[in-house]
Agmatinase
Amino acid sequence: MAGTPTYATPPGFLGVTRQDASGGTGIAGIPMDIGTTNRAGTRDGPRAIRAASRMLVDGAHPGSWVDPAELPLADLGDFELALGDIQGSLARIEQQAAAIDHLVALGGEHGVTLPLLRALRKKLGAPLGLLVFDAHVDTWTDNFGQAYAHGSVFYHAIKEGLVDPARMIQLGIRSPVQREVWDWTLGQGVTVVTAQQFHEAGPQAVAAQVREVLGTAPAYLSFDIDALDPAFAPGTGTPEIGGLASWQAQAVLRRLGGLDFRGMDVVEVAPAYDHAEITALAAAGMVWEYLCRG
């Protein structure tokens, strides 16, 4: 055990104090919550995830033996938003993300993924592959009448050509969904692995399917914490029963080493509904798995 107790760890993610992300990975919070979730409250997600990450600073990853303390990480604080202005906030997020070579974003609601993908698409000049952990397809044309929100993020990402739907795979889907939304999603070429299919196939088979869909070209990882069952992540805006266990998500991520991920986000942590930090710790753990995947 380290000589410094975890409660004394600096407030940056994994205790990181460096603020210059040049040549490495930048951690940034995006405390956006536009109130279109069933239960609002994700603006405090970045703070909670950073605080929970203090539990992960004491040594190397037991699977890859990567020590996060030796990675070129920087915690850049939280992005600036245009409070009350959805389009303005999306534009500001995109602008700030464009300046970071490799970004890991702590949400905030899932709507923040759209400007992150926009920034990467412009930087790379080609659509990305996309791995999504989520309970919801998020391909609705609108969300309670709001065109840009957490339920329509991937509709816009596909329509704008930010991602290649033939290289897009969603894991853990299980929420109610209109048949036309489901058919549209599959019709675009998206691979959907429902939570039940995931449970029946197992993480090893699912990870192999992810590798097959994404291939070797650049890809992005978006982890909505509600992919996990509420037993493992109660602190989220739209919980759905029958989800993934934390260990199942870990087991997939640990089998994705070598894939060309260009960024990641973990979103929809709502601390007001959490219990004993277990949702925030799960979110911090998924970022930890991403950083240490090898």
